[in-house]
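user: Here is a favour to ask of a fellow structure person. I have my own habits and do not want them to colour yours. Could you put it straight underneath, so I can go through it closely?

assistant:
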Amino acid sequence: MNTLALGPSWLDPDYLLNQFGIYGLLLIVFAESGLLIGFFLPGDSLLFTTGLLITTSQLKFPLWLAIVLICVAAVVGDQAGYLFGKKVGPALFKRPDSRLFKQENVTKASEFFDKHGPKSLVLARFVPIVRTFTPIIAGVSSMRYRSFITFNILGGILWGAGVTLLGAWLGQIAFVRENIEAMLILIVLVSGGQRKRVSVALELLTKPSLIF
């Protein structure tokens, strides 16, 4: 399958899966879930495409196992973000802007967390950029660990299994298989933020010295 490139080839889900397979996918899910530098990665469209490719036999991997591994990677990624936030603490809010780090992203995640409380860990899974920063903010706020891990696991399963299964289910429909480019564009539009991610990533490639 040759999908429409939604930016650089290394941000196109079809390219990433063809080049790095399921294990590259797991690394991306982990990074986008909790590493500060993972906010520009295409998590939603990547999970959707994974489900679609598996159900159409273009990606040779058991669907159930892919879902289990994706959920684990998402949960572990949020765990890493929580521990990072707990260690860094208030210093994160004082960090100067760079091409990779923007205080507005921290502020958005902080406001999201303040508004929704612990359930923000579930809701944020479906909001790009906020998804990456919310577990970090939970750590900064010293959220009770039992509550964190509960909502972390719930969010990881709903997002990891839900989006992947959506791709697998829709992949059984002929119209979707024949119009995969349009479906990927729709996923990006729904999740939002892709254009900004690509712009930032391109600037990092041309000016790597601006990172942090």
Observations:
- The first helix runs from residue 13 to 34.
